[in-house]
């Protein structure tokens, strides 16, 4: 059910053309935007929304930070790296309270853990958040960041590349875990990044800073509608899945349902269940900033408090942990 705060939003005077650039191709974690758009919620608030396919968090952060799109979806740590390079962006809602990042390999490859990554080939796209954050993972795992070779592959080719041994390791989000288990069975090994102590915030909604300054009412409407849409999808994913598959061709419903169960876990922590769905905690964001600064470096250090705001979130809309499977 949509909240009164969303239903009562005042539309801007004219339809504002706004672009949301995704982090990758549309999947279950983007269903909320497609559902809200299909229901006409953005339009009723005066937002003429276009959703653009993305090519990685680094590129979506770059596009939003340069003013090429008003809104984007980007891994939050990757957004901090971009902001350190001068990108004008602000996070307004976190989607993944837990990091979805993980590495996958086959037991039959002889790899037993990160110490065996040296000299191996890791397959992922060049704009992938895992590649941006690789130095942090490598140093936390105690290996030389320069000791591996990255191979450029598309997200859709990751599983085939691993099974065909074109690469030794792939990075991927936890969303896709079930598909890999189905395809590779007991030979599959999964290492979540948090097992080596790396658990920064994951995907977040970011907005161009200049756009926020010029049109805060549009930003408020977009954030509140999107937040409520995610809550609706948590409560009942069926209409959201329908909107997604009607808006995006080629998606398998069973796969998206499995992904959504993983995504709900990624969305859940003490802040999203108590403070509000999508809540960004200042202390945790500061820890992510310190991680980026220590292991990756920032061209232009900044106050991490300027990298986010929670003022547009409705605190009455909370993540429902009862809907999350253990």
Automatic annotation (TrEMBL):
InterPro entries: NMT1/THI5, SsuA/THI5
Source organism superkingdom: Bacteria
Gene3D superfamilies given in the database record: Periplasmic binding protein-like II
Domain SsuA/THI5-like residue range list: 28-235
One Gene Ontology term from the biological process aspect of the record: thiamine biosynthetic process
Pfam families for this protein: NMT1
Protein name: Nitrate ABC transporter substrate-binding protein
Organism: Rhodoplanes roseus
Highest classification ranks of the organism: Bacteria, Pseudomonadati, Pseudomonadota, Alphaproteobacteria, Hyphomicrobiales
């Amino acid at each position: 059910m949509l909240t009164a705060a969303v239903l009562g939003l005042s539309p801007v005077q004219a339809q504002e053309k706004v672009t949301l650039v995704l982090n990758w191709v549309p999947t279950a974690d983007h269903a909320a935007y497609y559902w809200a758009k299909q229901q006409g919620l953005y339009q009723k608030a005066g937002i003429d929304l276009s959703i653009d396919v993305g090519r990685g968090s680094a590129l979506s952060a770059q596009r939003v930070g340069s003013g090429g799109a008003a809104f984007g979806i980007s891994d939050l740590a990757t957004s901090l790296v971009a902001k350190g390079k001068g990108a004008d962006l602000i996070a307004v809602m976190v989607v993944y309270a837990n990091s979805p990042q993980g590495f996958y390999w086959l037991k039959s490859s002889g790899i037993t853990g990160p110490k065996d990554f040296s000299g191996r080939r890791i397959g992922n796209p060049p704009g992938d958040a895992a590649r941006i954050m690789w130095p942090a993972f490598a140093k936390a795992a105690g290996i030389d960041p320069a000791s591996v070779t990255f191979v450029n592959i598309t997200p859709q080719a990751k599983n085939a590349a691993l099974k065909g041994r074109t690469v030794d390791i792939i990075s991927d989000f936890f969303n896709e875990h079930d598909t890999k288990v189905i395809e590779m069975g007991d030979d599959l090994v999964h290492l979540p990044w948090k097992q080596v102590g790396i658990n920064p915030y994951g995907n977040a909604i970011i907005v161009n800073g200049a756009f926020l300054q010029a049109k805060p009412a549009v930003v408020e409407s977009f954030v509140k509608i999107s937040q409520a849409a995610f809550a609706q999808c948590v409560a009942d994913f069926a209409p959201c899945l329908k909107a997604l598959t009607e808006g995006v061709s080629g998606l398998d419903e069973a796969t998206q349902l499995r992904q959504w169960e993983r995504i709900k876990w990624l969305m859940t922590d003490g802040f999203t269940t108590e403070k509000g769905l999508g809540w960004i905690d200042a202390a945790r964001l500061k820890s992510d900033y310190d991680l980026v600064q220590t292991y990756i470096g920032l061209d232009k250090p900044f106050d991490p408090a300027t990298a986010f705001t929670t003022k547009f979130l409705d605190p009455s809309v909370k993540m429902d942990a009862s809907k999350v499977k253990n």
